[in-house]
Specification:
The structure holds two protein chains of two kinds.
Chain A: H1 2-9, E1 17-19, H2 23-32, E2 41-43, H3 52-70
Parallel strand pairs in A: 1-2
Chain B: H1 15-24, H2 38-48, E1 55-59, E2 64-67, H3 68-78, H4 85-95, E3 113-119, H5 122-125, H6 140-156, E4 178-180, H7 191-194, E5 203-209, E6 213-216, H8 221-232, H9 242-245, E7 257-261, H10 273-283, E8 285-287, H11 288-293, E9 309-311, E10 319-323, E11 331-336, E12 347-350
Parallel strand pairs in B: 3-4, 7-10
Antiparallel strand pairs in B: 1-2, 3-5, 5-12, 6-11, 7-11, 8-9
Helix pairs in contact in B: 2-3, 3-4, 3-6, 4-6, 8-10
The chains are: A mainly alpha, B alpha+beta.
Chain lengths: 75, 354
């Protein structure tokens, strides 16, 4: 969250993906940095146990949201 | 929680109401705190010769600038005496040193606590316990200095459980985790001297720590050290995860470890701290076969993996050896770090008195 928000503030388009167990932390971090509207992309927790193929599948599911956020839209 | 950590001032009618207000404001660790009145905070600051606005350190990732006033307020709340405050300040300075990387151990799922180890004349001056019941209750200095560190984390560094402190299970040391070395009762070099300070200086070492694992062994140095090495080599600590030994070619990817040794120091008359560290460093390791079976290292177990070992500690000096605990038995403890050195490295700061 911290790095994504700062990249965006520096003019570098960013998309931050966070698992849904971290919604309160992500939201608080965004608010802390004056970026309450930062468009975080949330995905189902956990990701640690996913196989390589499952990670690829998850990435494909999220790709369109990432593209929208990187071009200034909402997830 | 204020987004930028500004100071809040409130009024109360009586002490019990004040204690409850501190709960309402989210200032406690779950136990009652001593209300941080302006008068009491000023008394603490005077004891260390510091101004309230003086900066102790920063936690830039959370936009927190920690001042002496905030450290004092939390030391008051923890139940410290004014003379404990310089020790708390040194601990705060140490954990806010960039090398310590406080944002890591104070937020991680790994559930670290900040272990505070005190050395030097201040140990006896303030009656900081270094003997029986080392990690246990019953001594004001240890209990309140350690607790002050936790309250500083929560109130001045936004390490709020469930919000920015995301420990999955944590451990009891997160309430209070402060010990001292019994350096006047051993020929061993004190920890702070090992780390570059003079024997006459007082210093505080902070370490991002798992809980202490007690080690019982028969009263012979080699038997004790062999047992300590076995415990320190366990699977399941942060030191034997893929994050710490997955790339052991780079020493920074491995972690430090604290070892406390109690009992009669005469048992160790033929051993220096360097001897102990060298012995342990050679044996705190795990076979490639075990690490692969636990999926710490990738791939199937191959021929020869049972005979190949990965060291869990990069260098002998990354074993922080402390002589402390009761004299009655040869009990030791092993305290693995929260993660590799690149994640957090122990920091020692001088206790400065006015």
């Amino acid at each position: 969250m911290h790095d994504g928000i700062h990249a965006e503030k520096a003019g570098v388009p960013s998309a931050t993906i966070c698992t849904d167990r971290f919604v309160p932390t992500a939201t608080a971090m965004a608010r802390m940095w004056g970026a309450a509207d930062y468009p975080t992309i949330f995905t189902q927790h956990p990701v640690e146990n996913l196989t390589r193929q499952q990670v690829r599948q998850r990435a494909e599911e999220l790709a369109s949201q990432v593209a929208r956020v990187l071009t200034g839209g909402l997830p | 929680m204020p987004d930028t950590g500004e100071t809040t001032t409130v009024r109360w009618a009586d002490p019990l109401e004040a204690i409850e207000r501190c709960y309402d404001l989210g200032w406690t660790d779950g136990l009652p705190v001593a209300p941080p009145t302006q008068q009491r905070v000023a008394q603490f600051l005077a004891c260390a010769g510091r101004e309230a606005s003086e900066e102790v350190g920063q936690l830039p990732e959370r936009r927190r600038r920690v001042t002496a006033g905030k450290v004092a307020a939390n030391a008051v709340m923890a139940g410290c005496l004014p003379e404990h405050f310089p020790v708390v300040l040194a601990a705060a300075e140490a954990m806010l040193d960039p090398v310590f990387n406080l944002v890591g151990p104070s937020s991680s799922l790994g559930g670290a606590a900040i272990l505070v180890i005190v050395n030097g004349p201040v140990v006896q001056q303030l009656n900081i316990n270094c003997r029986a019941n080392l990690f246990g209750p019953g001594n004001r200095a240890n209990a309140t200095i350690g607790r002050a560190v936790r309250l500083i984390l929560m109130n001045a560094c936004a390490a709020i459980p469930g919000l920015f402190d995301r420990s999955v299970i944590g451990h009891p040391g997160k309430y209070s985790y402060c010990i001292a070395e019994a350096e006047t009762e051993t020929h061993w070099t004190p920890l702070h001297v090992d780390r570059g300070f003079a024997p006459g200086q007082s210093a505080v070492t902070v370490f991002a720590a798992e809980g202490p694992r007690q080690v019982r062994a028969t009263g012979h140095p080699e038997a004790i050290l062999y047992s300590i090495a076995d415990v320190a080599s366990s699977l399941g600590t942060s030191m034997s995860t893929s994050g710490s030994v997955g790339d052991s070619a780079a020493g920074l990817r491995q972690g430090q470890i604290v070892v406390t040794i109690a009992g009669n120091s005469g048992l160790w008359r033929d051993w220096s701290k360097d001897d102990v560290r060298r012995y342990l460093h050679q044996r705190i390791r795990r076979s490639v076969a075990d690490l692969k079976t636990a999926r710490v290292l990738p791939g199937p177990v191959a021929a020869g993996d049972n005979e190949r070992y990965v060291s869990l500690v990069p260098q002998p000096e990354d074993i922080l050896l402390v002589f402390a605990g009761g004299e009655e038995a040869n009990m030791s403890s092993v305290i693995p770090s929260w993660g590799p050195k690149v994640g957090s490295t122990a920091v020692t700061k001088e206790v400065r008195l006015p």
